[in-house]
Amino acid sequence: MELSEWTIALAAAASVCCCLCLWVRFRRSARGFGRNLCAKIMARTEKPLFRIAYTLYTQTRLGYMYYKRQMRKARQNYPAGHSSTCPAEFNGIKIIPIPVLSDNYSYLIVDTTSSVAVVVDPADPQLVQAILEDQGAMLEAILCTHKHWDHSGGNKGLRRLHSSCPVYGSAADNIPGLTHPLSDKDSVKVGRMHFKALFTPGHTVGHMIYLLDGAAVGAPSSLFSGDLVFLSGCGRMFEGSSTTMLSSLDTVASLNDETLLWPGHEYAEDNLLFAAEVEPRNSARENKYQWVLQRRSQKLCTCPSTIGEEKQYNPFLRSQSAELHLALGVQPLQDEDWTGFRARVLEELRKRKDLFNRR
């Protein structure tokens, strides 16, 4: 849906007026309370203002225009990509992380025995096409985790270059260029590559992750997690409750510990810093943090990790941890079931991470 210029201007003006009114209302007390009061004001105002911005981003052409602007800036600021990456190859299946925008990753997966390829979340179609040509591979499928433009913005551009290439994803998520809607546990097969789609709502209503079966080629399985799970982190709950998100995270935690995790963003350093605040004595986290610091000092990619590693230091996969409960000051309520309690732990974690990001 496209908004007229005056409608967009009106929404922007309303947002500005709302901010001014709140500033006038709180300006006297703000002098006395400083940062704490600012956090409270942010908590009061973020939701309605954010909802306006989020709706414009996801449901109008304004979001696409913003994505295109960010793409141009990224190409100027990071001509070689925001991070240096190396392909991983397992018995003829090559996984190529593609750094796009300021911190996103797309992934090109190539069956080198037949020169066919699948791409996950192709935000920059020009870059994906260049790598396809370099690999001498034919694109046979586009797997999209969710509708946000930094993951789906290149779908239509690639389809213009590969008109017969299907675009897979959830019908619930209004994915640009979608041709083949998927349901939970549906399969996509290209060459020797067998992908299973797993429905994981929470970040968006139709978010999906894709599990590449390693057993078919005698290799570890690989999970392309979009914005559900990152190294030591998880995505914001834009369109789902903490209970919904917990169920999706439990889907990840149930996978084999050796499964490789290929996330949609390079957030490792900040995520591990936050994890230190809620589990300061977690030695696995500290060891991983030192490794990440070394990598990021050279602008090197930090993926993949493994599901087993994530369960040791990712607080969003550790909602059952007694140490975490103590650090958060959250304890079970009378007659509260275990799932409800863990969802409350997750909600508190997410709130704290959002505040941490604003510092």
Structure in words:
This protein is α/β, with parallel strands linked by helices and 359 residues long. It has a domain at 5-59. Helix content is 46%, strand content 18%. A hairpin with an 8-residue loop joins strand 9 (193-199) and strand 10. Helix 3 packs across helix 5, helix 6 crosses helix 11 and helix 7 packs antiparallel against helix 8. The longest helix is centred in the N-terminal third of the chain and has 55 residues, at 5-59. The chain is globular, with a radius of gyration of 21 Å. The chain starts with a helix and ends with a helix.
Layout of helices and strands, plus pairs?
Layout: H1 5-59, H2 61-77, E1 88-90, E2 93-100, E3 104-111, E4 116-120, H3 125-135, E5 138-143, H4 149-152, H5 155-161, E6 167-170, E7 180-182, E8 187-190, E9 193-199, E10 208-212, E11 222-224, E12 229-230, E13 233-234, H6 242-253, E14 260-262, H7 268-278, H8 283-297, E15 305-306, H9 307-313, H10 322-328, H11 338-357
Parallel strand pairs: 4-5, 5-6, 6-7, 11-14
Antiparallel strand pairs: 1-2, 2-3, 3-4, 8-9, 9-10, 10-11, 12-13, 14-15
Helix pairs in contact: 1-2, 3-5, 6-11, 7-8
Cofactor: Zn(2+)
GO molecular function: hydroxyacylglutathione hydrolase activity; metal ion binding
Protein name: Metallo-beta-lactamase domain-containing protein
